[in-house]
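User: I'm putting together a teaching handout on how multi-component assemblies are represented. Below are the sequence lines for each component of a complex, exactly as they appear in our records. Could you produce the 3D structure of the whole assembly as structure tokens, so the students can see both representations side by side? Please keep the chain order the same as the input.
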Amino acid sequence: SKKPNPAIQSRALEILQTVFGYPVFRGQQEEIIEHVASGHDALILMPTGGGKSLCYQIPALIRDGVGIVVSPLIALMQDQVDALETAGVRAAYLNSTQSYEEAFRVERAVLENELDLVYIAPERLVTSRCLNWLQKAKIALFAIDEAHCVSQWGHDFRPEYIQLSILHEHFPDVPRIALTATADRHTRDEIVSRLKLDDSRQFISSFDRPNIRYCIVEKENPRRQLLDFILSGHRGDAGIVYCLSRRKVEETVSFLTEQGISALPYHAGLGHAVRTENQARFLREDGIVMVATIAFGMGIDKPDVRFVAHLDLPKSMEGYYQETGRAGRDGNPATAWMAYGLQDVVQQRRMIDESDADFEHRKIQIGKLDALLGFCESLTCRRVRLLEYFGESSSPCGNCDTCLSPPVAKDGTKDMQKLLSTVYRVGQRFGAVHVINVLRGISSERVLQWNHNRLSTFGIGAEQSEAEWRSVLRQAIAAQYVFVDNEEYNALKLTEKARPVLKGELTVLLRPYLKPDRRRKTRLLQ
Ligand code: ADP
Ligand code: ZN
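Assistant: Of course. Below is the structure of the complete assembly, with chains in the same order as your input.
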């Protein structure tokens, strides 16, 4: 490990205080700044709002020359430059929205050493024209913001990011700092290899949000459950409710309003003026519940959001983390609540299968959905599972539903075998309703039509309710024993993983189905 460099440290603190007006560094900022200002490469994983910008801005001010910031968010460049100029930092940007003269002025200012920071769109930076120009400049560092855009595994893949590896070849002596708030292991490895950051030091901030209580319930009557959730601990609080469709947003707003809760809608189908107005009211007034599609929340900085509720399943753990992360920014207790059911799983799978994405990409999305399902069905601490996904190990938190009211796992091997063999007996050609009917010995028209009342598994699960079997089926999907084939009318099919279960080589632990009365008792905990 390196020795601290007191000269850089005191210069960094001085800049923090006099230029940016903050008394102390946050988290790992000081360590990162010292590392980069001394000329070393770094990869920064820090949640949104953690304070990534200072990690390259201050080293750029300490080192000679201009700091070049690669950012894909052209719309935000102007804001960032304005903020820096207000603080007295000499900053500018280069992107396609500018005239030739404006761009030329910036380029000349760089060569004359008159700028501290320049933001550049990635597709522009990698042109030979731009690289030639930079060869003539004195460069303090390269900061690669939103570095996960280099990853095909990620949802924001940008092909031009891949070419950024040439920075290392053209400017081997200039330190590079890559920054992102998306940090699963896979993405991280891809950033390192594609940007050739093998010798960089990784600074991984904790993604834990200890003041957020995680809570996931089985979906039965979602609106009623949402109302109960709000009334039993969040009456009068500001919150966000996420739904998948515009129609559901509107229906939920009507329902909450009838129940005396101030709710407003936000989705892409509303006019710009209405959206702006609703957003302004949410920020300004107390206790507004914003019911929204995921279009809402980007760049919203409201510190006192006391809950985020999901009436539909997000697409991935990243999505869940980002959306729930909008709760409790002020550090006071907040709740992330979600109602989820079998239908959500089927719906999300269908959306993936019907998307235009190519096969590889769909496979990635399915993998991400499966990770989220595993999280929903978790028998252990939610936070441990969530952080584990982001590559962080922790111990049970005491502030999530499974910690506060631990589900007593039961041996579900027999039940799982009953389910899997029924899926098999009906030829892997029928959906959830039919399979559960056969299990429960229900002679529906379809069951009789296919003679499935004569199957050996007909009625072997008669002692359990439909809701209980749905719970077992969800867990079978989460554990990947079964998948829903959208190409074939949502038929349930077995995977390779089902085999050891059917052969009795594997014990299956199941999250017991909570009867509604038992649930009412645990509601206090939510
Ligand atoms: P990120 O890019 O990680 O999302 P930002 O760099 O935009 O985060 O910082 C988030 C907010 O925190 C900004 O308002 C920033 O001014 C503030 N901030 C960053 N570092 C500090 C600090 N050391 N002390 C106080 N506020 C800070
Ligand atoms: Zn926990």
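A couple of points students might notice: DSSP finds 24 helices and 17 strands in the chain. The first helix runs from residue 6 to 18.
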